[in-house]
Amino acid sequence: MIPLLSVENLVHYFPVRRGLFGKISGYVKAVDHVSFQMKSGMTLGLVGESGCGKSTLGRCILRLIVPTSGIIRFDGRDLATLAPSDMRHTRRDIQIIFQDPFASLNPRMKIGDIIGEGLVIHGRGDDRARRKRVMELMDRVGLSPDQYRRYPHEFSGGQRQRIGIARALALNPRLIVCDEPVSALDVSVQAQVINLLHDLQIEYGLTYLFIAHDLSVVRHFCDTVSVMYLGKLVESASAVTLYRNPAHPYTRALLSAVPVPDPAVKRNRILLEGDAPTPLNPPPGCRFHTRCPIGKNQEICQTQEPELREIAAGHSCACHFSSIS
Fold first, then answer.
1. In the chain, what's the furthest Cα-to-Cα distance?
2. Those residues with Cβ within 8 angstroms of residue 9's Cβ, 6 or more apart along the chain or in another chain
3. SS3 label, residue 15
4. pLDDT tens sequence across 95-140
5. How many whole angstroms separate alpha carbon 165 and alpha carbon 113?
6. What confidence tens digit (pLDDT) does each residue in 31-59 have?
7. Rg (CA), the chain
8. Residues 6+ apart with CB under 8 A from 47
9. Are 34 and 94 in contact (CB under 8 A)?
10. Which among 21, 45, 96, 199 counts the fewest CB atoms within 10 Å?
């Protein structure tokens, strides 16, 4: 099956400017040669610490940020090289749900206009047809159509995120980038929104790139999980495989920090030493070696960058000493 989305060697560096004339003194390597594929209808979870480049990667796919280099092939077309007019047409098929439901909605617009704005921009239907479509979407995501003329400040956080979901669905997209869509919500509301996203995926045949740092949510919601560290993918596998047999030391450390609801179960926490290095000047070799219990004592880890290689069927890992139990 041809993948719906194929990302090859995607790179995005942010220039750092200093001095009176803004001379470039370096680059923040937010996304550094990342490759992955997504089939239609799947959910890929992208996890990692804050600042590892997850959101930048999602925005590059949407071309909200122009990538430095690489290929972003969506349905056979390279988005990285599309002209603005062609990209505008493609954006009907790719939408985003933002992390912050408070900042992502225009406080001066009524929610009916917010949800229907994409329909207006892309010339879908007349006023009556657009209003009907917005009413249907509001009802589908659990909002009352009677709230059509209210403003965002009149809604709770969970309701605002539902508005964002309805806005993303308006143009019948095929791929939705979910940029930590539940991290700003209460735990009880998180479950409601996750269940809504799951139901919508089944109903509309959606494909999700689900960016998150809550590994419990990812385990429940995603088919495949990719772990990102300091701009690079370090491990990728099905959710079942990754949680049962993590191969990368960083993945093991992340999973050891996931709370277990059973007080009788004792889990050995893996504590990483020090802070994550800056992406402005990442360490040579394996980028994780400065905090890794194995790599900090191995010359190969300090000098040679490991490739993301397949260690088992459907399971890839970027570690010189990767192993699965």
1. 68
2. 33, 34, 35, 69, 70, 71
3. strand
4. 999 988 888 999 999 999 999 999 999 999 899 999 999 999 999 9
5. 14
6. 999 999 999 999 999 999 888 999 999 99
7. 21
8. 54, 212, 213, 215, 218, 225, 226, 227, 228, 254
9. no
10. 21
229, containing H or E segment = strand 224-229
Instruction: Please report the pLDDT score of residue 323 as a whole number.
Output: 65
Closest-CA residue to 306 (of 234, 226, 247): 234
Interval 56-84: pLDDT, tens: 999 999 999 999 999 999 998 999 888 88
Retrieve residue 153's tokens: 């400040």
- Per DSSP, the three-state class of 62 is coil
Indicate if the alpha-carbon torsion angle 139, 143, 144, 147 is positive or negative.
Answer: negative
**pLDDT band at 184; cut points 50, 70, 90:** confident
For the chain, the distance separating the N- and C-terminal CA atoms, rounded to the nearest angstrom, is 31
Instruction: Return the structure tokens found at 255.
Output: 């999973």
Q: Residue 316 has which token pair?
A: 């890839």
| pLDDT higher than 60, residue 325 | no
Nearest 10 degrees: Cα torsion 264, 270, 274, 278: -110
CA distance 222 to 224: 6
Residue percentage of the chain with pLDDT more than 90? 70
d(CA 181, CA 100): 7
pLDDT tier at 2, thresholds 50, 70, 90: confident
For the stretch 185-189, contacts whose Cβ atoms lie closer than 8 Å and that sit 24 or more positions apart, written own/partner, are: 185/101, 185/157, 185/158, 185/161, 186/157, 186/158, 189/156, 189/157, 189/158, 189/161
Residue 136, both tokens: 């249907």
